[in-house]
Amino acid sequence: MNIQIFGSKKDNDTKKAQRFFKERGIRFQYIDLREKIRFISEKYFKLDHEHGGLEENSIWMTNPEYHAALQRAFDNLKNDTPEDEFLIPHETILEMKQYVQDHGIGNSKEPGALTEFYNRFMAPNKVR
Questions:
Q1: What is the pLDDT of residue 37?
Q2: Alpha-carbon distance 1 to 6, whole Å?
Q3: Which residues contact 33 (CB under 8 A, 6 or more apart)?
Q4: Best CA proximity match to 41, nearest among 33, 31, 51
Q5: What is the DSSP code string of 58-121?
Q6: Which of these, 11, 4, 9, lies nearest to 27 by C-alpha position?
Q7: Which of 101, 116, 118, 126 is 20 to 30 A from 26, alpha carbon to alpha carbon?
């Protein structure tokens, strides 16, 4: 049986669940929701957080430029008009995964990591 605990380090319920399994010697995987990237679809973009949408204080909701960029992305998906296209070989995808393991998601572990990621993996594989 694989047990996963999703939560945050400061959440009391998460701590209780971890303690419960530790005390019984049961192995589990802890996933910190504050460190994970979240996928959002257009369906949920317009809903409030309680119904699966973004949190009110999310930069995607509070910053008009970010909000407009996300809306443009949804429109581009609907109209099949992507702004950029990339053709990425499997070997490069494996390198990308390793890069994220080593350097974190975005700039979470080190400044400039996201720009380096783009320059190393995305820019050379851009086809449009």
A1: 56
A2: 16
A3: 6, 7, 8
A4: 51
A5: -HHHH-HHHHHHHHHHHHHHHHT--S--B---HHHHHHHHHHHHHH-STTSSSTTHHHHHIIII
A6: 4
A7: 101
pTM across the whole model: 0.50
Q: State pLDDT tens for residues 54-101.
A: 888 888 889 999 899 989 989 988 898 888 888 999 999 999 999 998
Instruction: Name the residue among 37, 26, 18, 22 with its Cα closest to residue 2.
Output: 26
Exposed (0-12), middle (13-18) or buried (19+): which is 45, by Cβ within 10 Å?
A: middle
Residues 6+ apart with CB under 8 A from 60: 40, 54, 66, 67, 70
* Lookup: tokens for 42: 């257009």
Going by C-beta distance under 8 Å and a sequence separation of 6 or more, which residues neighbour residue 75? 81
Give residue-wise pLDDT tens across range 28-50: 888 887 766 567 788 888 888 88
How far apart CA 104 and CA 97 sit, in angstroms, is: 10
Task: Find out whether 52 and 45 touch, Cβ atoms under 8 Å.
Answer: no
- Alpha carbon dihedral 101, 107, 113, 118, in 10-degree steps, equals 100
